[in-house]
Amino acid sequence: MSFVAAEIDSQPDCWLRAARLAHTPEVANALPPVDARVAIVGCGTSLYIAQSCAVLRESAGLGETDAFPASEFPQSRRYDRVVALTRSGTTTEVIRLLETLPDQDSTVVTTAATRPAAHRASATVALDFADEQSVVQTRFATTALALWRAHLGENLEVAAEDARRQLQRDLPDRLVGCEQFTFLGSGWTVGLANEAALKLREASRSWTEAYPAMEFRHGPISVVGERSAVWLFGPPPAGLVDEITATGALVVRADIDPMADLVNAQRLAVVLAERKGLDPDSPRHLTRSIVLADQ
Q1: 56: burial class by Cβ within 10 Å (0-12, 13-18, 19+)?
Q2: What are the pLDDT digits (tens) for 204-233?
Q3: CATH superfamily of 3-157
């Protein structure tokens, strides 16, 4: 079994552990308080999880919340708290951003409080139990999201149980046989759609795209056909399933927690990679952390 496959399997337990951690005073104080104006930043997978976290917090009425790539943070804006998601804690763009925020409260969510990013933040939440050996990121990302959801008051028991059930099921043959994959989301699941597309792209070199569900009609629907799968996270907009079905594409949707559905997309990425003879732990041109030379 690859490292990433084992890490995917471990996610439900990690989520519940993160949920318990979210309610400890130390972690609760490190995460943004109600009504704070918050920016969440990350790179790659962490950016897409940041997108989901931002929508969840603002939708819950807890305060204005934005998400940015760490390299594109708008320095002209003022935030009460900047939250940085970084598995490695060594990502250059995140560290450079934190170094520019001396007068702002900042929190780093990472895998160890000893990492460089943590040394540059006001507070650190260390998810050491969710660290990974694979270059491809899975359980750290979803565990960070589970932590955030629990911090916002959600119960993660259903999500964990949904994921456990999915891990016991085989992926459909037709899905595995598709050649093109489009992921759609709405609200907080747009970030999940983006992350699902990235997982297939980096692990299996598959042709993948991701869009807000309502945007799919505005051009992207023209690329799908009988060898395509269109995967919807959460309830679909009215009429969209019928329109996708008419293209001949496979419609993928499940009445489960969207985070558990992301687990299935992660599993698909591994299966597709292995069928192509690729190593899902070490995609070409990628490293576990992007550390840039000084410029």
Answers
A1: buried
A2: 999 999 999 999 999 999 999 999 999 999
A3: Glucose-6-phosphate isomerase like protein; domain 1 (3.40.50.10490)
